[in-house]
Amino acid sequence: MIVAHVFSSVLHVRGFYPRPLRGVANLKQTASWFRLFAASLALLPFGVALEGSKEDKTRPSRTDVSESLADAGQLVDYAHWNALLPALSKQYREAEPFPHIQLENVFDPEVAMACVEEFPTAGSGPWTVYKHYNEDKVGLTKRQLFPPTLGRVTDELNSEQFVRWISALTGFHDLVPDPQLVAGGLQQSGAGGFLNVHADFTMHHYRRNLRRRVNVILYLNPGWKPEWGGALELWDRTMSRCVERVPPTFNRLLIFNSTETSYHGFPARLTCDEGVTRKTLALYYYSVEQQTNNECAFAHFQPLPDESKLGRVLIQLDTMAVQAYSRVKRAFGVNDDLISKVLALVPRRRRPPG
Fold first, then answer.
1. Cis, peptide link before residue 126, omega less than 30° from 0
2. Strand pairing of 128-132 and 100-104?
3. Sign of CA dihedral 146, 149, 153, 155
4. Would you give per-residue pLDDT tens digits along the chain (354 residues)?
5. Quick check: is 76 in a domain?
6. Are 313 and 250 contacting, i.e. CB atoms less than 8 angstroms apart?
7. What is the pTM of this model?
8. E strands of 228-351, at which residues?
9. Which segments of the chain does DSSP mark as H helices, in order?
10. What is the Cα gyration radius of the chain?
11. Does residue 2 form part of some domain?
12. What counts of helices (H) and strands (E) characterise the chain?
């Protein structure tokens, strides 16, 4: 059973499901990929360097901003945002299809721009690759590897004062942050990237008494064009309609409740220019449960109303693979590095455009 779960995780992280499958030829190709996956399982005990582990020396430095931040106190004007809390909290609670709010310029634009200029390229650093039928992106959760300004902004969003403010805004008392940044941290998708509509896992993978309550996403995309796509779609609980689209506007902070039916994603492939990526910094906040054996709902993806029958089957199969991998992580403390190291040995195949 464990081997089967690990096998499913191969599909989860690297994503060799063809999207979409067309005809017998692709089905035969899929079978050959499965044989390749089986062969790769023998490599699990061995480690290799993660993709793009070379240091990125091409990024412009923001020494002036970083030095000023070192001497600065708060990065958020709490006096300003505390004064707005009653109105913002009401707006948050009443939002549809689930509680959420978008805030502009919580951080000084110069600080946000420093984050953009420091943001590591997808080909540098130990990024974890998430390429499968339901998503195409890369992520970096190791806070110690964040550049200076991005690190300070992350620490601010995890600070006691900001967490108190988030608790007051959302109505979840005594929220706690996640310094491990599980499933969060820096994320980016380039041209062709996407994230199918889904609801997130409900319990922390490694700290079993933490229930996920709130998601916070900081968008870092100056000059983003609407025709590139990438707006986060918020769907109703029956998956019958998209209620709101949130463009990934520069220095926008999106906050929303995380439940088993808070469906969200950007399912259409990005059409941004070569070299441009959709950049975000994501953090999640939890409430502390008394018991540690709480039932966990794992991330589950949903088909859109106009999805084909074959597409619905493939979305479900991929979701099952994702959930199997999540169970392995939760049961044995496995992190994504292990699978990324294995999959670095497997040749990557380009999927046909969807």
1. no
2. unpaired
3. positive
4. 443 444 444 444 434 344 443 333 444 444 444 443 433 333 333 232 333 333 343 344 444 554 555 445 679 999 999 999 999 999 999 999 999 999 999 999 999 999 999 999 987 778 999 899 999 999 999 999 999 999 999 999 999 999 999 999 999 999 999 999 999 999 999 999 999 999 998 887 767 789 999 999 999 999 999 999 999 999 999 999 999 999 999 999 999 999 999 999 999 999 999 999 999 999 999 999 887 666 667 889 999 999 999 999 999 999 998 888 777 766 666 666 666 555 444 444 444 444
5. yes
6. no
7. 0.78
8. 232-235, 242-246, 252-257, 263-266, 278-288, 300-301
9. 2-14, 23-40, 63-71, 78-83, 85-94, 109-118, 148-157, 160-170, 309-332, 336-343
10. 20
11. no
12. 10, 12
Q: Is residue 305 part of a domain?
A: yes
How many other CB atoms sit within 10 Å of the CB of residue 21? 18
- How does DSSP classify residue 43? G
Domain count for the chain: 1
- Asked whether residue 84 is assigned to any structural domain, the reply reads yes
Tokens in use for 111? 């600080």
Q: How far apart are CA 320 and CA 267, in angstroms?
A: 19
Q: What is the DSSP string of 89-121?
A: HHHHHH-SSSSEEEEE-SS-HHHHHHHHHHPPP
- What range does the domain containing 196 cover? 60-311
